[in-house]
Amino acid sequence: xxxxxxxxxxxxxxxxxxxxxxxxxxxxxxxxxxxxxxxxxxxxxxxxxxxxxxxxxxxxxxxxxxxxxxxxxxxxxxxxxxxxxxxxxxxxxxxxxxxxxxxxxxxxxxxxxxxxxxxxxxxxxxxxxxxxxxxxxxxxxxxxxxxxxxxxxxxxxxxxxxxxxxxxxxxxxxxxxxxxxxxxxxxxxxxxxxxxxxxxxxxxxxxxxxxxxxxxxxxxxxxxxxxxxxxxxxxxxxxxxxxxxxxxxxxxxxxxxxxxxxxxxxxxxxxxxxxxxxxxxxxxxxxxxxxxxxxxxxxxxxxxxxxxxxxxxxxxxxxxxxxxxxxxxxxxxxxxxxxxxxxxxxxxxxxxxxxxxxxxxxxxxxxxxxxxxxxxxxxxxxxxxxxxxxxxxxxxxxxxxxxxxxxxxxxxxxxxxxxxxxxxxxxxxxxxxxxxxxxxxxxxxxxxxxxxxxxxxxxxxxxxxxxxxxxxxxxxxxxxxxxxxxx
Length: 487
Ligand SMILES: CC(=O)N[C@H]1[C@@H](OP(=O)(O)OP(=O)(O)OC[C@H]2O[C@@H](n3ccc(=O)[nH]c3=O)[C@H](O)[C@@H]2O)O[C@H](CO)[C@@H](O)[C@@H]1O[C@H](C)C(=O)N[C@@H](C)C(=O)N[C@H](CCC(=O)O)C(=O)O
Known about the structure:
Helix content: 25-40%
CATH architecture of the largest domain: 3-Layer(aba) Sandwich
Bound molecules: ligand UAG
């Protein structure tokens, strides 16, 4: 693609001369380390370093043009724009030829449930022989090929590239978790969503968004973006959530609500919860069927309703939905049972927000006929306000709480634990900083019919200490501890 073609109509501070305009762009990159000959390089002023400082290095590695926020002294065309991130989203979309226009794109936002909803949808679509792509916290998955990701919602440039790969592999439906950071930072600018889903809103990421209102505004961007071209667009809301009515105002798309408490288009009633799964009556626009799922807990009923709403809009019949839901085995790291034949339950869950921790603990309380033990921590360099709240929730529901490390990053884990336990009586909890030791301790204490919840990391296979990631998987450690116990 010619540089002039890519930049056509973009407002920026230079006019390309004929020679510059005919430069061929073969790649686009925002990281100088990835630059190859023929690359257009975007200088991004980041949170840790300023990408403009790598312009020279990008040029030396073969960059043929640069998009920047200020004039630069390099002998290649430099196109100066007001905000390189925004321009990058627009140009990436162009460079990869608007891939989201060529597939059905479903975006899921909300504090909790994004991963579960996208994975339930994946199963429902696969049951209809549709090819899916998935972008989220755990990974990007294109036609059963897994790609590791750093962010829940990747940067626009990576995102558009992934969509193009999906189009190349004839994926017809892309399921994407859309984080509030991504919405706020414009990573999904240019994505042509067909369906947008709101799951729920509860305190999280307040370090970044500063207030719950701003957090909600960030979420609302998905729905205003969807409403820009309302034809064939559907916005799906959890009608039981307290901000649903406000978010509904943000879109001109068709609206579907789901819920349990208030009247909604898609509803669950007569819910029968068991330790092995959940059964309920599903009513979709007045038509009712009985559904059975191995997913456990009321929060998962909401996740199922969100997915059902999107599947229904995507012309999947109620009977196919019913069959699809029955076939779902579970979701990795989400209420995942670790079973090595022991006589007590071990559950690994990603619960890392106050709300999700409470949901998981409340759910097991319904089935518990002996002690509940929870192993939990809070991440470093992230929202500190949730630490004492998570601490309180843990001791409120569990008979024994073991506070431990969970991705302390550049913070001292002891400081994080102090903040989690501030205000608690010393005899309400145990502190074991080393996460592996904490899990081993919980296993050693377990008696018949006890329930152990290992919360916070779920599917993660690493522990972030300092700026390094080292291998750590709660499920592996739990299995090893169970083996040791049996010996
Ligand atoms: C705060 C934030 O969003 N940071 C994101 C940001 O990193 P950054 O601003 O620190 O980037 P930087 O390291 O300063 O680099 C600036 C620029 O210089 C470039 N560079 C850098 C070094 C070099 O040698 N050459 C070079 O060109 C970089 O490629 C980049 O373009 O840009 C990176 C690349 O896109 C992101 O991976 C990174 O997300 C970090 C990992 C992060 O933790 N983000 C969190 C806050 C986040 O976005 N979370 C949400 C969801 C969370 C949830 O729901 O739980 C998410 O969607 O993941």
